[in-house]
Write a structure and sequence with these properties.
Helicase, Ruva Protein, domain 3; alpha+beta; seven-stranded antiparallel sheet; elongated; binds flavin-adenine dinucleotide; FAD/NAD(P)-binding domain; 2 domains; five-stranded parallel sheet
Length: 449
């Protein structure tokens, strides 16, 4: 005789009545934890659940795990950053403070230890960025897959989650394209909406909304800036990379943000870490005020004040009076940029000794406040990270449990959190995954007792 199952079992489960009327379980038990999404956050959620002793199943809608992880950091995977807790939070401008409690439980130090214990040595590059010494994201993914196998986590591919199974207001499983799967707890780690070819197409938003969560409308972040300026359109500056510049992003007279770092001129505008960091402020302002205009005010030589640099240039002219302006600028900016700036100042044909004090002052002022009209950003498909996502007000910051539906947890880019480039996003994905998976296991195992 078939009984109604009250233990969150698999769809093919049979709880039967034996000869003396006692119920016995005669097939495989349902998973304690069901993780949805085999990206960075989902993999760590499944690992944490498995390490907690929970029977864990991971469903992935594609045919492979970690597709975005494999393309991260240009295929080298900037796994985390060596900065302290404050730096991790500061470099996560999209609600980084929400992560205080998560990082107190599991953070970049734990990520480093996790990989090193499993033989993946990390090396540090500029700005504290940590990469696998192999320079291959595959090494990172393989370590995660090996751990899942060691823990006996079951992975089901081509299992797109469609809806929750709900019982008495509690999430107790999923409807997937392959059928229903009951579970003690469910972790949503379906990612954002950038690089959709990797599988992250925003499915988690509809799932979250179905149980009452609010979604902060997704927007592109860490995305290059576009410019209609003739100096960009003419491609004169295309390909020039400038290190350690300072850029202010203005909307009218309002300074939206300022950032220091490396900048790259492209055929459409600006890219590189500084432009990527500024992009989120522009996108948010444009959402508030669609008619807003923007200007990037670039200081190509922020390390020197106008007075210091003018004094140095006077000394230079005294020693090299016959040299060109381009040569005088070359110690401070890349050669092609020096040429373009001398041209723009109308001084390209002059020798140093022919330039008046007023002309030097004008040149230095221009290089330290170089305005470039900015039109907007490239679209979501070119963004590295999704801003917006599941509203944090509906999530418990300590456990990443839904405040609206018991048995439901969130991890990774599906949540309304985004960081700068530099390893901060994978750090957030790994850490939220680890905490959500561990919390989900605790919840599910406690219900069984
Ligand atoms: C080009 C690029 C380079 C990057 N480089 C770096 C870097 O070097 N360092 C860094 O810190 N960050 C980097 N990032 C950001 C970082 O990769 C992401 O923030 C992170 O991978 C997000 O992890 P996630 O697990 O939340 O989502 P994802 O990695 O997007 O994983 C989501 C998974 O869920 C699956 N899924 C979706 N819907 C369903 C469904 N309905 N059912 C089942 N499965 C589903 C998807 O197929 C996917 O496998 C980069 C991003 C891009 C686009």
């Amino acid at each position: 005789m078939r009984l109604a199952c009250d233990r969150a079992c698999l769809s093919d489960c049979r709880h039967t009545e034996n000869a003396v009327g006692v119920r016995a379980l005669n097939v495989v038990r349902a998973p304690d934890v069901l993780v949805v999404g085999g990206g960075s956050a989902g993999l760590f959620a499944a690992i944490a659940a498995g390490q907690s002793g929970a029977r864990t199943v991971l469903v992935e809608k594609g045919e492979r795990l970690g597709k975005k992880l494999l393309i991260s950091g240009g295929g080298r995977c900037n796994v985390t950053n060596s900065g302290d807790l404050q730096q991790l939070i500061e470099h996560t401008p999209g609600n980084g403070r929400f992560l205080h409690s998560v990082y107190a439980q599991w953070s970049n130090r734990d990520i480093v230890r996790f990989f090193e214990v499993r033989g993946v040595l990390l090396k540090e590059e500029d700005h504290g960025r940590l990469f696998p010494a192999s320079n291959s994201a595959n090494t990172v993914l393989q370590a995660l897959v090996n751990e899942l196998q060691r823990l006996g986590v079951e992975i089901r591919y081509r299992h797109a989650a469609l809806a929750f199974l709900i019982e008495h207001g509690r999430v107790c499983g999923l409807r997937s394209v392959k059928g229903d799967i009951q579970a003690g707890a469910v972790v949503i780690a379906t990612g954002g909406v950038t690089a959709q070819a990797t599988g992250s197409s925003g499915d988690g938003y509809a799932l979250a909304e179905s149980v009452g969560h609010k979604i902060v409308a997704p927007y592109p972040t860490s995305v290059p800036l576009t410019s209609p300026d003739v100096r960009i359109v003419s491609r004169t500056l295309q390909g020039i990379a400038v290190q350690r510049v300072h850029v202010k992003l203005l909307s009218g007279k309002k300074i939206l943000a300022s950032e220091e770092g490396d900048l790259l001129f492209t055929h459409f505008g600006l890219s590189g870490p500084v432009a990527l960091r500024l992009s989120q402020y522009l996108v948010r302002e444009k959402t508030r005020n669609p008619a807003a205009g923007f200007v990037a005010l670039v200081d190509f030589v922020p390390a020197k004040t106008v007075t210091e640099w003018l004094r140095e240039l006077q000394e230079y002219v005294a020693v090299y009076p016959g040299r060109s302006i381009k040569q005088a600028l070359k110690p401070h900016v890349p050669e092609r940029l020096a040429e373009a700036l001398a041209e723009e100042a109308g001084l390209a044909v002059k020798r140093c000794h022919e330039v008046s004090r007023a002309e030097w002052e004008r040149l230095v002022a221009m290089i330290k406040r170089w305005p470039l009209a900015i039109g907007g950003t490239l679209g979501m498909e070119k963004a590295f990270i999704t801003g917006g996502g599941v509203d944090l007000r509906g999530i418990d910051p300590r456990t990443l449990a839904s405040k609206l539906a018991k048995g439901l947890y969130f991890a990774g880019e599906v949540i309304d959190i985004h960081g700068h480039t530099g390893g901060y996003n994978l750090t957030a994905a790994f850490a939220t995954g680890y905490v959500a998976g561990g919390s989900a296991a605790k919840y599910a195992l406690a219900r069984e007792d």
